Amino acid sequence: MDLNALPSAGEGPWLVAPWARLTAGLLLCASAAGMAVALTLPTIWYQTIGYPEEVYSILGGIRALWEDGTPVLSIVVFAFSIVLPLFKLCVAGNIAVRGTATAGSASMLRRLHAAGRWSTLDFWVVGLFVSAVQLGVTRSETRSGIHVFMLAMVAGIIATRVLAGALPDRLRAPTPTPTHRTPRPRVGLPTGPMVGRVVHLGASLCLAAAPLLMLLSIQKSILLKHDLSIASAIAQRAAGGEVWLTLGLVIFMLLIPAARALAAGVGHWSRTRPSRRACALEDELRRGSMLDVLLLALFIVASKLDDLATVELGAGAAALAGAALLGALDSALLGKRVRDEGTVEDVPR
Predict the structure, then answer these.
(1) 3-state secondary structure string, the chain?
(2) What stretches in the chain show pLDDT beneath 50?
(3) Which of 79, 115, 224, 245 could be cross-linked to 220 through a Cys-Cys bond (beta carbons 3.0 to 4.6 Å apart)?
């Protein structure tokens, strides 16, 4: 598609490819149906010996957070798990049905696609909660609702990716009117390949350490104590036969972040300019990495468990925070280097 033939910002609209409309439409229908079903199904079973068992749905878990005296966390989970997916379905569905997109709707779609991973927050909250609550007198298990919910969220993320990929990479902005203002110095990220390499090394070390270190230490009494790490949570869910939750933890918390770090490393440590393919791959993997989502889920679970036992965040939580924050800075520095120096494919031959 010739970018020079695209409408300027505020003009349009332009057509969306039929294959993208059909694919996204089917995925959006599956996402909407899955979300509607998931809201009515149980997502988590919980019981303490001597007390009746409790079964929560997605809405029930949000209400429980509110009633437990954590309204802010309740609102956060509600916004990310229900409001954001519904709004994204409306925006993406409108583009898929109409078959056209304007500058405004295209920009909104890309932002929703970038934020789409946060819609999986409730899945990670449930996954960490059932892994943490294994104290002998207290047991917890996932139910079908949370798995249907995750599949619905993933279908929505793929749908917005398909639509966003069918739209132009950028719009021609109107030519600004020349002015005689004195340019102000711009304060941005530190420059230089070495800075990016140091940050990348720090992010990679935190990422390698986070799965093995303790995330949470839960203690009910002197005899009842459970230390949870990402590796132990994966092992517990696999032993319990929870295939989807196990795959989710392995793919989104281990494989995709590791692949993103590898792609960023190729860009940072190459002696020549970064490759366009490596940069594009790193950017796409960054959108799929959910370390920051897991970090927020960890704090929500710690707050919830504080009513049941003594909870202490471990070194794994610090390593996870480092991997998430330094990973974001790593991506930003690589993007800045690409903008400043270009890529191998941009160099005239």
Answers:
(1) CCHHHCCECCCCCEECCHHHHHHHHHHHHHHHHHHHHHCCCCCEEEEECCCCCEEECHHHHHHHHHHCCCHHHHHHHHHHHHHHHHHHHHHHHHHHHHCEECHHHHHHHHHHHHHHHHHHHHHHHHHHHHHHCCCCCEEEEECHHHHHHHHHHHHHHHHHHHHHHHCCCCCECCCCCCCCCCCCCCCCCCCCHHHHHHHHHHHHHHHHHCCCCCCEEEECCCCCEEEECHHHHHHHHHHCCCHHHHHHHHHHHHHHHHHHHHHHHHHHHCCCCCCHHHHHHHHHHHHHCCHHHHHHHHHHHHHHHCCCCEEEECHHHHHHHHHHHHHHHHHHHHHHHHHHHCCHHHCCC
(2) 1-10, 171-187, 347, 349
(3) 224
In words, the CATH class of domain 11-171 is mainly alpha
Tokens of 6: 């695209």
pLDDT at 23: 93
Task: Determine the distance from the C-alpha atom of residue 241 to the mean position of all C-alpha atoms in its chain, rounded to a whole number.
Answer: 24
- At residue 179, the pLDDT reads 47
Closest residue by Cα to residue 328 from 158, 122, 189, 187: 189
Token reading at 56: 């929560």
CA distance 96 to 214: 45
Residue 284 half-sphere exposure toward CB, CA atoms < 13 A: 11
**Sole residue written with tokens 């794994």:** 316
Q: What is the pLDDT of residue 104?
A: 84
pLDDT for the residue numbered 69: 80
Distance, CA of 199 to chain centre: 21
- Looking at the DSSP bridge assignments, the partners of residue 226 are 218
**pLDDT tens figures, 216-243:** 888 876 667 778 889 988 988 888 888 8
Tell me the chain's radius of gyration from C-alpha atoms.
23
* Residue pLDDT, tens place only, 72-110: 888 999 999 999 999 999 999 999 998 888 888 888 888
Tell me the CATH number for domain 193-341.
1.20.140
Listed in order, the ranges of the chain carrying CATH 1.20.140 are 11-171, 193-341
